[in-house]
């Protein structure tokens, strides 16, 4: 029986992917290199700018936004103040800003790329059939695997970190945008069409506004996933809280690891609650 | 002038459309086609004409294809086969741009569940049709405001749809449709989601609106009473085909087949039938020629207790009772002139049965039907009851 299984020798899938990736790297080096270079500069600029803001002021701004977003309730604002102060107190402030940059840039790009793909899926059956399995693939493939091509394309540092986070985090935005648009009731779509709306008018005046809260839920998921990639991205040199966790792991320093991890949790909770509350408005 | 003409319009849903169309040609039933090809027949070879300024009701039970049919008038659904003409222009062959233009200028639609955009205020909803035509803000808001004022909802313009009751929401739906000043209104079960009282009110308003602004209205409903109430013409659909087209009276009095007959069985006839439909040929006395003796004899023969009195030109003068006639005969009075009572209730040909009820209830005599003073018929209690019960003999007399 085993001869039957062995009838076909090992398929050279790994080699194929290997070759393909190096082909991509070589062929598009002229593209990847400047992207890497300028993105690095841009992201460093974001981090530097964030670091220019005095920590106390930063904490207060976050607290005020939290207070307004939660409709004048103190819970989240108080949590933000205590949590962010704790991170500052532990000397992790600049790591926090690096992490924040990575999360913000990855999320922003996810939204910019993901929403149009979601719209395409909702509007086009063929696109839907093609993109849906790709999204499944992107979400189930272990996130570590994305690090390999990320390094191949963009070297090490923040940029490949964003690239890997992007691939890992983009599916919810695409899916929820698709879902949100499909959920708009037939009658409202018909109403829009019956008045002679063009496709764009229908999309921007009816479908997207009505899908907004669903899309926002997807974006919230995307931000959370991007945040969860922070530690993994630090393996390829992305700076921030994740790197602290990683180095604690390598040196078996439970205490430092715990503190950095806690910093990530604080950031996660603030971002999650904030995006949710903004959505409810 | 005919506003809309549709010719042999067919719509089938599914993949094997060509095969299904062939089977339709062979007069296969909807069920057979579904079984053989998996294709659902929505509308099957429908043709008719709608006149300008007419309320044309398409009525049928759910699954009869009426909603599919109405969506082909503005091509929210594309017909599989057949032509749709609006003002002589063939809608079915139009490109997207021309179609959009027709939708913007000629057609507006009102939906069963109102179809209001929940994220827009009442005013923003109402101006939607004008907004997408690129009209500038001040002008379109003015028009929208006017449409809302006409619907009596001007004060609600900054509210959101979910803050309004169902009846008010549908008024907004109607105002939104009218803000465009379309020539044709498509109303898909527009009043079906409303409670009966509001529905009645809206029907009245629609009829009034129709007589004021002369829109051509295509009205879809599953409620025959509603159809009979507002329709100038009714098309009855079953399994995607038209079973009968006619005026409300025609549908009621001359059902085309068993299906229609069964349908109209439960109709509240009181709202549809008029005096003309149930009146009978009266036995009359001529005031000049007939005396009490003749009157009594006639009454005995016919088994009635009173008779109507007319003059030579059949102008209604009144009635006499058997009692008075017999008194007069005893007193040897030759003429009936002195015993004619003039307090007889009268109605006209077009008085509805609903109104006849109250007249006949308060009266001890039959009710006379007059047309410009001339007697044309008589209504007795028995006929009213028989008509309500739907006895066809009564209606055949018409």
Describe the structure.
The complex is a heterodimer of chains A (281) and B (398). Chain A is mainly α. Chain A contains 14 helices and no strands. In chain A, 85% of the residues lie in helices and 0% in strands. Chain A is globular. The mean pLDDT of chain A is 89. With 398 residues, chain B is α/β, with parallel strands linked by helices. Chain B folds into 2 domains: 2-106 and 182-267, P-loop containing nucleotide triphosphate hydrolases (Rossmann fold); 275-396, CBS-domain, CATH 3.10.580.10. In chain B, a hairpin with a 2-residue loop joins strand 9 and strand 10. In chain B, helix 1 (17-25) runs antiparallel to helix 2, helix 7 crosses helix 8 and helix 14 runs antiparallel to helix 15. The model of chain B is unreliable at 392-398 (pLDDT under 50). Chain A binds chain B through residues 185, 187-188, 190-198, 201, 205-206, 209-210, 212, and chain B through 71, 74, 76, 100-104, 107-109, 111-113, 115-119, 128-129, 131-133, 180, 186.
CATH superfamily of the largest domain in chain B: P-loop containing nucleotide triphosphate hydrolases
- Name the pair of protein chains with the most residues at their interface, and give those residue counts: A-B, 18 and 26 residues
Rg of chain A, Cα atoms, Å: 22 Å
**Largest β-sheet summary of chain B:** 6 strands, mixed
Give the topology, please.
The complex is a heterodimer of chains A (281) and B (398).
Chain A: H1 2-5, H2 13-27, H3 29-52, H4 55-69, H5 75-89, H6 93-123, H7 125-140, H8 143-154, H9 158-183, H10 186-194, H11 199-228, H12 230-233, H13 241-251, H14 254-280
Helix pairs in contact in A: 3-6, 4-5, 5-14, 6-7, 6-9, 6-11, 6-13, 7-9, 8-9, 9-11, 10-11, 11-14, 13-14
Chain B: E1 2-13, H1 17-25, H2 30-37, E2 40-51, E3 55-60, H3 66-73, E4 81-86, E5 89-90, H4 96-105, E6 107-110, H5 122-126, H6 128-131, H7 137-150, H8 166-179, E7 184-188, H9 196-213, E8 216-221, H10 224-230, E9 233-238, E10 241-246, H11 248-253, H12 258-265, H13 275-278, E11 284-286, H14 292-302, E12 306-310, E13 316-321, H15 322-330, E14 346-347, H16 353-361, E15 367-371, E16 374-379, H17 381-388, H18 392-396
Parallel strand pairs in B: 3-8, 3-9, 6-7, 7-8, 11-12, 14-15
Antiparallel strand pairs in B: 1-2, 1-4, 4-5, 9-10, 12-13, 15-16
Helix pairs in contact in B: 1-2, 7-8, 14-15
